[in-house]
Amino acid sequence: MMSTGRDVEIVIPILYYCEKVLGLSTFSGSGVDGRYWLNKINPKLLLVPNSVGDNNYIKAVKYAAKRNIPVLSLTSEGDFDEKKIHEMVWGINKDKIMYEDLTLQWSERSRKLTFKYYPELTDKIGVSGGVGFDRYKIYKFMSRDKFIKKYKKDYKKIICIAGWGFDQLFGDLFEMDKESILKIYGEEQIKNFKEDRLLVNKILKKLIQNNKDILFILKYHPGMYKIKKNTEFVDLYKYNNIIEIQHEENIADCICGSDFLIAYESTSAMEAWLLDKQTFLINPTITNFPRSDISKGSPIFKKYEECQKAIDNFYTVGKIPWFEEKDEIRKEIIKNIIEWDDGKNHIRVGKIIKEFLEKTRNRKIKKTNLINYLKHYIIHIIFEKTRFITKYSFISKIPIKKLRVLKYCHEIYYHNRFEALKIKYYLYLDIFYDKRHIN
């Protein structure tokens, strides 16, 4: 499993419930050598954050299913859109076969939408609520004072800008998922996106230049693969009143450390609402592209002048123009997307896990053969023995794709970082459970 980002936020509270309430033993391993750990541990259950968005997860799920190990998959990105339903259901699973025993989606709306196109999956899909959003009711996030102290800045005004995945439309990243991207957007829309990237960059540059008393947190999209020149933040690093954040902080800390959030298009807008922060979007040319309904909850501005006026208005009267008028729309959006916002979605998953384990307790796990065992053992050893390469930034520039990918995998699958987060979050979960007498 990844050691940073939304997958961790989804899994940690579920592990807490399993350990503290159900009394289960848990083990968390990386996705890269996941099949080695399945061979070594022979678990009663494999739980994955998703089974369609990461190739390592898909391989682990297929391998577990082949060995008759029960598999339960959560959903990392559960804001389903009918125009993208096939991509949302299958992601990069080219087989288009649901190998897991059960997948839990965020909402009843998403579940019904899936059944509309795939009625044969009726027994394979349940609803958990948006587990990753529980954290907004459970954890304490970094205060603005701690944030500016950590980054040695001295500003009274701070704005967070959430990046979009513009870089997915260029080079190797585009070629890897070209068919899927073209199917969703089409060539004309991709051309519009590329134009918008430059226009958004121009607006952001002007905002940063003309508001030197404001600190701008540039939070890159979590999927951004270190090719900053293909993002809307290109060349913004030159200014003194910015901080660039990729995986160093989670989006919630960035939002809490700021006054409000700006984006081109981002599900993080809803996260900002759950943290009682205002939002607005910058869409210079078009607004009717395939996108989440979350966009309907924020005012949308096209020009620099509109954005500057919104910023001035916020710091004068505490309001972004047209934000309050969308309050009822935001409530409906939250319900439709994550079902419940009470912080207890991970508990719902925990109860499903309990029933699931009882149902599958007599299932016989198949043994793996020696060749498979050795193959995955070697992958594990290589992964363990190459951790040192994360120390050398120049490796990211070496024109050997597999080496760059290996370095990236070490950065996102760092077990010590996961364990540190687990300890930190368990303290907050202790308080949450004690206050609500959950046991």
Tell me what the structure shows:
- The model has no long low-confidence stretch (mean pLDDT 89).
- The longest helix has 33 residues, at 178-210.
- Helix 1 packs across helix 14 and helix 1 packs across helix 17.
- The protein starts with 5 loop residues before the first helix and ends with a helix.
- It has a 6-stranded parallel β-sheet with strand order 7-6-5-8-9-10. The protein has a 4-stranded parallel β-sheet with strand order 1-2-3-4.
- Strand 1, helix 3 (55-66) and strand 2 (71-73) form a beta-alpha-beta unit.
- It is an alpha/beta fold and 439 residues long.
- It has helices at residues 6-20, 34-41, 55-66, 85-90, 108-117, 135-138, 144-150, 171-176, 178-210, 251-256, 268-274, 304-317, 327-338, 345-360, 370-385, 401-412, 415-436, and strands at residues 46-48, 71-73, 102-105, 125-127, 157-162, 214-219, 242-245, 260-263, 278-282, 300-301.
- It has 2 domains: 6-130 and 340-436, Rossmann fold (3-Layer(aba) Sandwich), CATH 3.40.50; 141-338, Rossmann fold (3-Layer(aba) Sandwich).
- It contains 17 helices and 10 strands.
- 47% of the residues lie in helices and 9% in strands.
- The radius of gyration is 22 Å and the shape is globular.
The fold-level CATH name of the largest domain is Rossmann fold
Domains, number: 2
Distance between the termini: 27 Å
Percent strand equals 5-15%
Strand order of the largest sheet: 7-6-5-8-9-10
What is the general shape?
globular
Radius of gyration, whole Å? 22 Å
